[in-house]
Amino acid sequence: MPLPKSYTPTGRNSRLLAPTPSSAPTPDSDPHPPAPPGGTDHPAPPGSGPGYADTFAADYDRWFGKPGITGATVDALVGLSGTGPVLELGVGTGRIALALSQRGIRVHGIDASEAMIRRLRDKPGGTEITVHIGDFSHVDVPDRYSLIYLAGGTFFELADTEAKQRCLAAARARLKPGGLLVFDAHLPEALAVASASGTPEVVAETDERLILCHRRIDASTQTYQSHYLIHEADRTRHLRVAFHYASPGELDLMAHKAGLRLVRRQGTWAGAPFTRESAYHVSVYEIGAAEES
Fold this sequence. Notes:
- The chain is an alpha/beta fold.
- The chain has a domain at 67-181 and 251-292: Rossmann fold, CATH 3.40.50.
- Helix content is 28%, strand content 30%.
- It is built from nine helices and twelve strands.
- The chain has helices spanning 51-55, 57-64, 67-80, 95-102, 114-122, 161-173, 188-197, 248-257, 289-292, and strands at 15-22, 86-89, 107-111, 130-133, 145-150, 175-186, 201-205, 209-218, 223-232, 235-244, 260-266, 280-287.
- The strands form two sheets. The chain has a seven-stranded mixed β-sheet, with helices on both faces. A five-stranded antiparallel β-sheet has the order 1-10-9-8-7.
- Strand 9 and strand 10 form a beta hairpin.
- It is globular, with a radius of gyration of 18 Å.
């Protein structure tokens, strides 16, 4: 039950275990999952080296750009944006941020990868986005926002529960009264089913490239590794990326501890209901009543 092909990798704060170019030309997979078996795959933690984001910044949009999915995500965020400005955690090359900016919304972003930010800056309108370099779990910015968001499973790039809790509390502190926090995330059960099938997920297949993804889950640590094979131009590359997942109930509890409460949860960015068949969820949080008063 794969995630929609619109579920693409974005943020750059996670743990890339090893990008290993393969000597033999074979099909390869990319660093991000679209279906239930994997949220977002991304670079190493801050301070652990350049990682995937810096190494593959020039290839990122070509491998993972999905206009249809991006459109649904942007439409949903426009509806939640309020008076602005809005802040993207893990802004990357600006796939979402630039589209929002083109819709007249003031957008800021945080990202740990300077290479990704350079790609954003080189795009039309890229210099209009206010970007802060750093670990997005600290949300270390001076402004307040009507909307803070993460897309493409970026929240699971944070290495553990402590980092997630810190991020939620920091985001809460940067919200304006009435502001919202929204992010998408894979469901652990869907990840487990997809992983148990043993069948690699086809992330992208064109005349120019083939990208496959296989995920391995360790329930004892609530982590999974996404193995991507990316075959392009007679060359195959292998990426291994680690993620730390949480159930919707755990996320709601962490949000509550951070002074946030769930407003709604849906099954897609396009607004489909969240049901037993959902492979991922989009959750919207607001400041808790006691916190606002």
